Amino acid sequence: xxxxxxxxxxxxxxxxxxxxxxxxxxxxxxxxxxxxxxxxxxxxxxxxxxxxxxxxxxxxxxxxxxxxx
Length: 69
What we know:
Largest sheet: 2 strands, antiparallel
CATH superfamily: lambda repressor-like DNA-binding domains
Helix content: 55-70%
Radius of gyration: 11 Å
CATH topology: 434 Repressor (Amino-terminal Domain)
């Protein structure tokens, strides 16, 4: 099983907070390039990305889902 992201929901969260990808990266404690790759489906979210979203108070199920590999 792998964790994938619901990019549309992350983008909606960013819009609500008026955040760019760079601002989201700072809030998550990751590189801007990682945010860009995750949101564009080129990379799966890593532990630091997931933990950052949880620290922001975003429920796991809101922006992530489990998929069979």
